[in-house]
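Q: Please design a sequence for this.
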């Protein structure tokens, strides 16, 4: 008898429908899996045999069993096909009935338990839009799957329990729906009020958080660059429901969802080491997987010791910074990963770290300093909107009892400005000033005459590129939004210029 069960393959973040066709017919005993299946799928033959035996289910030892994964020209990998293949086998032998509105996913253990798999959120999202009503998933994945509305999600602990449910003998319980509640990452020691001094750097962080602008901090060792970068998480607004689903789907596929959590509730903060490879940063592999820039989607990508990253690795950031996506092509397929992150980088001003320091003399030669600075290319620097010098904080400021504005108050200001941007661009598809295409800058960023004159003079004298010109205006737009003004004044442009050209 022929049976058909629906499943899916994961290519990057894309979910591709896969039909599992199972044919059980008289003939010499044999078990064949076809359809460009990888080694993990081929090994499923032994897992399925052992699982059925240990669950007291009948395997057709005297039959010829052929399982086809269609489309046959699509390379398939992973263990998540196990449960669908086993259900198809039982359906073909008429031990159970399985409708075309039911969907199952999971890895089968030798004792019949159903093990969790990665990518449950995008898989269940696909199941909903494909018209399925009942979804059977591993019990450990049930909370993730239950985030998606409009599905009856059943957490399956074992093969035996699923068979009893399908036979009507012992129904499984529908998993309780998981309401998405966004939050921010609250860490007491990262509150803005605990950061002494560095008012200019904190101001730049607020501008970067409000408009989604990229930022580079340069300063002596111990000046607080890393602390400032980490504190940025405390002033970012909570994720929207749509953003929660986006980020959670990425972490679900990567297998990085926090333990016992169905979704990502706060904006990600990623800080890869400077020894990271290009594949680790942008993603890739034989079957493309998301890298650090995708894991930082809708959050912060912090690159400490910026010039110590291999230059070839940093150059891979060009396209993602501009487009908000990273495109990866491999022999196994082509895919795109979202990459709308805020880049925050930190560096020393020179190899020894003490150039321009008021207390410690720099020992680097001019040639050494120039070589160090050239590690970061001009095109990369041109894509960084805010450059800030971070001096060491005097001891008297460290001992000061005066508290600055806390993260809660700053975050409320950032939320206000982001809401203003969302209202401004609601008909256009953008949400932040940094995402505004150059062709629309004139429409949404009106300049006063004095501001326009200052900007043109600066562009001519400092040889600003076209990209830099538009990025200056977008930063000025965010500064004006923070001030509650619609028109960009000379003061807004002047502050944007100050951050664009900083002596480091």
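A: Design:
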């Amino acid at each position: 008898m022929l049976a058909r069960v629906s499943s899916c393959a994961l290519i990057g973040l894309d979910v591709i429908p896969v039909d599992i066709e199972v044919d059980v017919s008289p003939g010499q005993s044999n078990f064949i899996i076809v359809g460009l299946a990888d080694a993990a799928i081929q090994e499923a033959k032994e897992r399925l045999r052992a699982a059925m035996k240990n669950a007291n289910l009948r395997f057709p030892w005297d039959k010829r069993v052929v399982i086809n994964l269609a489309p046959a020209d699509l390379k398939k990998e992973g263990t998540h096909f196990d449960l669908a293949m086993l259900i198809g086998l039982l359906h073909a032998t008429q031990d159970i009935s399985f409708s075309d509105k039911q969907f199952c996913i999971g890895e089968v253990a030798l004792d019949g338990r159903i093990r969790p798999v990665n990518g449950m959120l995008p898989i269940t999202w696909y199941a909903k839009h494909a018209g399925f009503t009942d979804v059977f998933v591993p019990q450990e994945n049930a909370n993730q799957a239950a985030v998606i509305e409009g599905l009856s999600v059943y957490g399956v602990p074992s093969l035996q329990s699923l068979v009893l449910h399908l036979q009507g003998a012992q129904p499984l319980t529908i998993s309780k729906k998981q309401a998405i509640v966004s939050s921010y990452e609250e860490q007491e020691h990262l509150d803005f009020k605990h950061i002494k001094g560095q008012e200019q750097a904190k101001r730049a962080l607020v501008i970067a958080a409000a408009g989604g602008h990229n930022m580079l901090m340069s300063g002596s060792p111990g000046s607080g660059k890393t602390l400032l970068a980490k504190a940025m998480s405390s002033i970012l607004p909570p994720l929207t429901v749509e953003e929660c689903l986006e980020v959670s789907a990425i972490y679900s596929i990567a297998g990085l969802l926090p333990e016992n959590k169905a979704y990502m509730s706060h904006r990600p903060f990623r800080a890869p080491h400077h020894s990271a490879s290009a594949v680790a940063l942008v993603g890739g592999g034989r079957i493309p997987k998301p890298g650090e820039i995708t894991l930082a989607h809708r959050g912060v990508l912090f690159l400490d010791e910026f010039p110590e990253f291999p230059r070839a690795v940093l150059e891979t950031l060009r396209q993602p910074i501009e487009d908000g996506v990273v495109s990866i092509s491999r022999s196994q397929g082509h895919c795109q990963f979202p990459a709308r992150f805020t880049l925050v980088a930190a560096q020393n001003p020179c190899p020894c770290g003490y150039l321009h320091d008021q207390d410690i003399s720099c020992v680097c030669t001019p040639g050494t300093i120039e070589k160090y600075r050239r590690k970061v290319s001009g095109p990369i620097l041109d894509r960084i909107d805010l450059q800030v010098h971070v001096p060491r904080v005097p001891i008297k400021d460290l001992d000061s009892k005066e508290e600055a504005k806390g993260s809660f108050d700053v975050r409320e200001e950032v939320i206000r400005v982001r809401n203003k941007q969302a209202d401004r661009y609601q008909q256009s598809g953008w949400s932040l000033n940094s995402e505004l295409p150059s062709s629309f800058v004139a429409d949404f960023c009106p300049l006063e005459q004095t501001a326009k004159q200052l900007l043109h003079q600066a562009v001519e004298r400092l040889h600003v590129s076209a990209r830099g010109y538009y990025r200056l205006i977008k930063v000025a737009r965010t500064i004006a939004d923070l001030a509650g003004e619609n028109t960009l004044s000379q003061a807004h442009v002047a502050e944007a210029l100050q951050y664009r050209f900083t002596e480091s």
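Q: Thanks. Anything notable?
A: The two ends are 74 Å apart (CA to CA). The chain has three domains: 2-166, 188-428, 436-504.
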